[in-house]
Design brief:
The complex is a heterotrimer. Chain B is mostly helical. Chain B is built from 14 helices and no strands. By secondary structure, chain C is mainly alpha-helical. Chain C contains 15 helices and no strands. In chain C, helix 8 packs antiparallel against helix 9. Classes of the chains: A alpha/beta, B mainly alpha, C mainly alpha.
Amino acid sequence: MTMQPPLNRRGFLATAAGVGAGLALTGCGDFKPRPAALANANAQLPTYIQYKGVATSMPATQDGVSAGHQHFPADPPKAFPDGPPAKGPDINIMNLIFNPVPPPVEKNVMWQALNKYIGCDINFAITPVNDYPQKFAVTLAGGDLPDAMLMLPPDQNSAATPDMLHALFEDLTPHLSGDNIRDYPFLANIPTDSWRPCVRNGGIYALPMPRPVSGGPLYTRLDLFKKKDLDPNPKTWREFVQLCKDITDPKAHQYALGDPVTTWNLVMQMLGAPNWWREEGGRFTHHFEMEECKQAMDAVNQLKKAGVMHPDAFAVKGKFKEWFGNGQIVMHPDAPVAWNDFYTLYGPVSKGMDIGYMLPPDWDESTRGGQWQGRANYATLIIKKAPKARIKQILRAMNALAAPFGTDGYLLRKYGVQGPDHTLKGPDPIPTPQGTSETYLPTIFATDSPFTLYYPQKPEIVPDQYAFQKEAVKKLIPNPAEALYSATDAKMTKLFFATLDSLRMGIMQGRDSPGEWDGAIKNWRQKAGDKMRAEYEQAWEARSS
Amino acid sequence: MALFWFLIPGIVALLLFHYIPLLGNIIAFQDYQPFIGIMHSPWSGLANFDVIFNGDDQFLKALVNTLELTLIQVVFVFPVPIVLALALNSLVSERVKRWVQNVLYLPHFLSWVVIVALFQQMLGGTGMLNLFLQAQDLDTWNIIGNPDFFKTLITSQVIWKDAGWGTILFLAALSRVDSNLYEASAMDGASRFRQTWHVTLPSLRGLVILLLILRLGDALSVGFEQILLQQTAVGLDSSEVLDTYVFNNGVVGGQWGVAAAVGLVKGVIGILLVLGANKIAHLFGEEGVYRS
Amino acid sequence: MTTMSPTRPSRPGRPTRDTKPRRSYSAVPGESPGSPPWRALKSLLLLVCVLLVVVPFLAIISTSIADPTQITKAGGFVLWPDSPTFDSYTALLSGGLVSQAMMVSVGVTVVGTALSLVTSVMLAYGLSRPGSFGHKPVLMLLLMSLLFVPGVIPTYLMVKQLGLINSYWSLILPTMINAFNVIVLRSFFMNLPRELIDAARIDGASEWAILTKIVIPLSKASIGVIGLFYAVTYWNAFFNALLFMNDASKWPMQLVLRTYVVNNSTLSGGQIDVAAGAPVPPAQSLQAAILVLSIVPIVLVYPFVQRHMNKGVMIGAVKG
């Protein structure tokens, strides 16, 4: 019997083309990516207008220190005394989550209250963080865009191209640049550093999700140091190594350090090495190409050989916080937000837990240490092209999501509704279990107010947190490429990172010979590094002019 | 002809959700950008196939590791469920048999993240095994982070996860063995091993060959998520396989074209292996996957 | 119609080697149990296997009811809870999301498995007769679908084109036919006694009648197993939901589980993580509890399949 295709070939291809046609969003012509200079053209940033509604003895500063508050105002000012600011149709936001998903809106008191406070329903299409880049690309390909989407920075998401922004998303410059931002006072309260990465193609294409630029400290378990009568205050690398040796006690399953990668970061900072890229007179150098990189790998290898690193440090991922919490490691570099998290999660378990902080010590008398500046944003929020009135409504809603510390809007966003979600201890909200799961609602992955140091469960730690930031900003090393776009970096970084990261781990562990590094870097330069460098240099020039 | 109608629903589903989307693999020849679409993304010839054919060191290592793991798994993993199924099948008590089976197939439902965590807690540097050794003043044994043990570790995890699950098909096949055959062979005074050899195994032969052939088609895919989770501990040299290579080089960097290109090549090799193995099966008088 | 010789009841009293008189036949026909040392070895082997599985599962269950202090001290799983508490389960089930996800998973699994079985049985039967119309190309189509896998984006576009985004059908239709299952099922069908089917055909029975009256009743074990395979696939799937379901309240259990257990686990440490400020993962006991909740329902399915497995023996006993 002969084969009779169930669908003839032409019909088959026609159906297929139909699928293809769904893909075609730009109408005409073949696609050519725009040059780096154009993609990185400058725009007028929004004017920074600090919110001064809530007084504190620990104010935010120009150089990036976050404000600190020991208590919530007893009578929180209303963010919108005239009623809900963004009445209108629903707003659909696609973003991600690190936590378990919150209960659905009909069972989520906090979410319902939030919708009421804003004036329209905010719907979140949530994706677990690991899977977000795929979901992002698929959604772009599908063409049915939500009103707003979280966009990870290009080095974590190659689909975040300036061309894509230009084709599909709104240029917000007319609404936000300069004094125009006065219409959205809470967005105006976001520091300028966080707006820089929102600029593409000579326009403001996104809203920030601000994070503190101070970066995080090297957290220390002061209680465990005290037990051994040690003062964790090393001045140099040599003293640091000695401290690590003194505190390590394998019999008690206690080690100095865990995560090899952040330990390497720490040593790099002791060496004053660049934060990814160094810019000097418009020339860019990656820290992987520098002597310091090899020096730091060797240093970590020495720590490993000295037995001060957790035996599973190189074998296990994602356990470091827990080790720090249960005292298996006593020092751990982490983000600023981790400070509160450690107390919340491990405080009840590790009785007497006392967390201190350390800044990277100097390498020696001549090589001064620095503190790598933290990214000013976790990611950014981009808004689909829409009529002007709709854009304004969305911006008003996002302005509401940026209501700063002390306002009723902030209280609702972070602590939910009094009663079901939190109880008051004096003026301070203490979350209930229901509140914890309801406030997983990822509003912080739409936009947010600037980071504020505040921990209602343990207000006495806030001055320490503030002191850390004050010290840190004095020795910040910025990453000059943070706000810039390089197509090659977006496409190739991850590609080489897997190989280089594996080699770096190998060298730090003593598995691979340090001699292999130069060859790998040479290969990287040829295939990607030099091109990235050139693009960043062009971008830097375009942005500076 | 009447039988053809039986195929229609299946064919429609295959065409709609498999073959039409498969046409999208044309992006293997494009510098595909999701927001522009297939129609307008620039053509790039065979550039996406470069990773495969330019003899990249890392790629070759991944290929070698993949083939090694496949070989190890065919030799050491594949027979385990058969042996287990035979052992279960010969249990006298039906109750015990059911219970054992119900327990053994449980690990299939755990995701790799959980299994990896379990193994780490048992065998890691501060895992139960090493804490025990330490308490006895013995040398600790680094298993998890040791590249030399990596393939053994991966293989034992696969066995732990899927051996019990794998017995299900074989047990189903065994339940169909005509009991007359056993009675007859017992009458003839056949020994226990002779029974297994002459009655039980032949009844499984067709299924075993079928599954082996299908496994060959998958020769170039081994344990993606499982390996990805455990790669950093031992480094890429010993752990990179094709799927993680594509992930690390294609998907992560958003190089959809590269991912599609590698997929196509894997498919072609898979089909060659399956057809070849099928031919060989025919030479031995077996049905294989299909007979032309 | 031909009659096959019945195999059951087996003639009693016939002596067999190596078996005790008390059990001259095992409940199901099979190999004779073997000599004592062999049996001891076998039992030991199976016991070890069972322990290798039971202990970790005990650890998971214990962790789900253990107190957080104990878990943190143990650094992960605990083998036995000191002061058991069901807080984790209450917390999970009170949120509403988990119970809803459970319903979604059950619904998708039940409907999906039923549809898959109907289409797969028809397909496998249609392909089980060599020489029937279209048999070869379709078989090839099936085989190739195992080896060439479409990309994520085109599949998404197809689902979108059909208007299935955010619909439960998007969790069923794209995975409705699994070529592996169909091929295995077909091979089972091909092993059925030819004579029965040929005789029915000569008697003028329609193909539909042959399928429903002869093939399916004779293949309960194999269909049960393939049904189990489908059910487990539907139950374990999360990726399609991730792509196609924008509304988290429509998520199946496995995707919710993923946000508890898998999320963040493959992110590397270092700069990006530190800058992002990855929050601390949910408590271990919660992770373990949701894991248990996600496994229990599907594990309950197998015993039903097992019941049919032992009826395969009836093959010979069916009469026309």
